[in-house]
Design a protein that fits this description.
mainly alpha, 10 helices, 79% helix, 0% strand
């Protein structure tokens, strides 16, 4: 047969192995983070055990992504990672209660006002800094959405924005150094996206 078919067939066991290794790494990372999180204290920034789990998994995954063997797992991480992220978002959404929305109409109005002010600020700032729409949407989601949803919004526009969105969402703290760090990331994103 054609030479291309023999090569493609040889890649399947490797892809299956990479997918299994990615799944095993993510499972071990999650179980380890859950075990450690129960011993960590809650504070103003981290309100619950699940908050610690998200922070630990994200931090350890970012550190692990710098290791050569993890990098070589390649596209299997995307094949496994995005569906898992969708499951996390669905689980978070399943815990929402519409009854709570009816019981606090003032807070709903405040939230809508903040979202409108945020949107207006992002549009003006994005236009002034001439940021691409993908970067703007990712930064906006990092501010309002959080760690779980920001990489998804970034990946919709460009897969290279997913890790940047994650870093922006993790770095979201009410402090001047965080603002400076975000500004540096945003100014560094423009040249990365223009290299095509």
């Amino acid at each position: 047969g054609p030479p291309g078919r023999a090569t493609g067939g040889g890649d399947r066991p490797r892809q299956a192995r990479d997918l299994a290794l990615s799944g095993l790494c993510s499972l071990l990372l999650t179980v380890g983070a859950q075990a450690v999180a129960q011993y960590l204290p809650t504070n103003v920034l981290v309100h619950s055990r699940s908050g610690w789990v998200v922070l630990l998994v994200t931090t350890l995954a970012l550190c692990g992504s710098l290791l050569g063997p993890i990098r070589r797992l390649g596209r299997s991480a995307l094949v496994l990672g995005y569906p898992c992220l969708y499951v996390v978002l669905a689980a978070m959404g399943a815990q929402a209660s519409f009854a709570a929305v009816r019981s606090a109409p003032v807070w709903v109005a405040v939230g809508v006002g903040i979202a409108l002010l945020h949107g207006l600020t992002m549009l003006i700032g994005g236009r002034w800094l001439r940021l691409p729409l993908g970067v703007l949407a990712t930064a906006s989601q990092a501010n309002l959405g959080g760690v779980a949803s920001t990489p998804l919004v970034g990946a919709v526009y460009d897969t290279r924005l997913a890790p940047i969105g994650l870093l922006l969402a993790i770095g979201l703290m009410p402090s001047p150094p965080s603002f400076v760090a975000k500004r540096l990331v945003l100014t560094g994103v423009r040249p990365v996206l223009s290299m095509r």
